[in-house]
């Protein structure tokens, strides 16, 4: 008896370990939205290109503000030899010249590079936002497709159950040929719906696999499609939108355009070039050195840079107009997304209480009445199809709500991935 108790305890422990292991494998294969977005950003060529553009701007910043390199000149000739020295070519002059930037154009050029680098960093965040939006839409689309396939499978099982009941009643002579055909039609429609749902699920899987750069055969599970949280008041969201990367990038581009205008204005003052020279000459039949200092400046006779300054003024106005356009579009998208998401969440709650719950109650009551012989087959089929439509509409509304929640997150400029903080 003791041996049997020990054997039973060991068997129970083994079963428990198998259950825990299976749950651990399920958790390991469960792909969360945050993990999917991280992966999509990590493998996105669009984000990589944005980072490369930021590296370009960083290199330009490192080069800006530096004085131009000096020039060294060495003159070799036979002039000294012909004047009395030994025959042959000799070094007869040395010179070094250095441009002297004045007017502050180097300072303005560095400011331009700083603003452009800051704008490039904001463009990286924008690229991350765009990739996260695409991946989130694909993620929720696959959740919806899996839920639709599960619904279609449950509906098919329910249709098979009705068909078995119909076969028994038909054999007993309690069911007409028309009613039998009606149930067969319901069964075939459920089979076709399941085929369509599985095909849609496969397409959604391939799309998400492509965005995440996963192998076609790689397996993972997704959590079920759920209801997003109710958004906060629109006034608070509008305050949070001030930090949107699109607005910040447009603002930095405006600052860069203004700095470029200042740079062009500073370039209208020509740079000076200082030249220090040493020449070898013949003095009283002897070789000696002479020194010279020269200063060179450009004469603005033909062009004074006024046309370039006018062009930069126009670019500043264009940057200002683009900033206002970005602000207007961002505010419109935020208000629209907030309004649609709020209405959808209210619609889902009303549909859950007023349509889906009542459709399930009607179906359960109709099944009991049909099994008791109090209701007709037509009433059962109508109640069944009404419940199917209500369940499918509930799933469709959840998808729309998640899509609007994703759109609202993009309108706020809120990223999920931590790649931006790690690599910017």
TrEMBL record:
Gene3D superfamilies: Outer membrane efflux proteins (OEP)
Gene Ontology MF terms: efflux transmembrane transporter activity
InterPro entries xref list: MdtP/NodT-like (IPR010131), OMP_efflux (IPR003423)
Superkingdom of origin organism: Bacteria
SUPFAM superfamilies listed in its UniProt record: Outer membrane efflux proteins (OEP) (SSF56954)
PANTHER family noted in UniProt: BLR4935 PROTEIN (PTHR30203:SF24), OUTER MEMBRANE CATION EFFLUX PROTEIN (PTHR30203)
Family stated for the protein in its record: Belongs to the outer membrane factor (OMF) (TC 1.B.17) family.
Name of the protein described by the UniProt record: Outer membrane efflux protein
Source organism (scientific name): Methylophaga lonarensis MPL
